[in-house]
């Protein structure tokens, strides 16, 4: 895949079937960043079912706490994603690579041309994300920073 200019991943929670990013990572040849995202929701605003799901994600999936001590607002993160995308954008590199539906949806909403590596057969078990998660996690779990690093390696090994 020669057309990729950056890699994006996002981890978060669902409330009323809407996805709320809680951690977002971007990676390009210029570097990588990971952000704590403040979705501005409190746990007691969620339905009982969404609360159970949120607790499950924190304990068993990504290990991110639902409520945020410090985080950037999603509008700021969107600007940073666009900046990363535009930084390495040229005629030969114009796709943001992602793996999850949530990251793909986020890129679509931003109007960024995207490519889901799943179309090339990428799976999370094939993308090596077994590094230590970043400091945002209270439990070991899927880290978006590890995900973008793993995706880039997966693409480069061909
Ligand atoms: Zn992380």
Description:
α1 (48-61) links the parallel β3 and β4. The chain contains 4 helices and 6 strands. It has one domain (4-157): Nucleotidyltransferase, domain 5 (2-Layer Sandwich). The N and C termini lie close together (8 Å). The chain is an alpha/beta fold. Strands 4-3-2-1-5-6 form a 6-stranded mixed sheet. The protein has helices spanning 48-61, 74-87, 101-110, 144-157, and strands spanning 4-15, 18-28, 31-38, 72-73, 95-98, 114-116. The structure holds zinc ion. Zinc ion binds at residues 23, 34, 133-134, 136-137, 143-145.
Spell out the key features of this protein.
158 residues; alpha/beta; Nucleotidyltransferase, domain 5; 6 strands; globular; binds zinc ion
């Amino acid at each position: 895949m020669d057309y990729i200019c950056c890699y994006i991943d996002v981890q978060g929670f669902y409330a009323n079937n809407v996805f709320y990013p809680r951690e977002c990572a971007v990676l390009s040849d210029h570097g990588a960043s990971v952000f704590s995202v403040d979705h501005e929701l409190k746990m007691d605003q969620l339905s009982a079912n969404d609360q159970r799901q949120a607790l499950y994600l924190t304990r068993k999936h990504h290990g991110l706490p639902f409520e945020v001590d410090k985080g950037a607002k999603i509008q700021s993160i969107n600007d940073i994603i666009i900046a990363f995308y535009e930084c390495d954008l040229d005629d030969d590199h114009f796709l943001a690579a992602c793996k999850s539906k949530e990251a793909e949806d986020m890129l679509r909403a931003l109007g960024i041309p995207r490519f889901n590596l799943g179309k090339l057969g990428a799976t999370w078990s094939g993308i090596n994300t077994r590094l230590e998660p970043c400091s945002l996690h209270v439990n070991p779990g899927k880290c978006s920073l590890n995900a973008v690093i793993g995706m880039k390696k997966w693409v480069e090994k061909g």
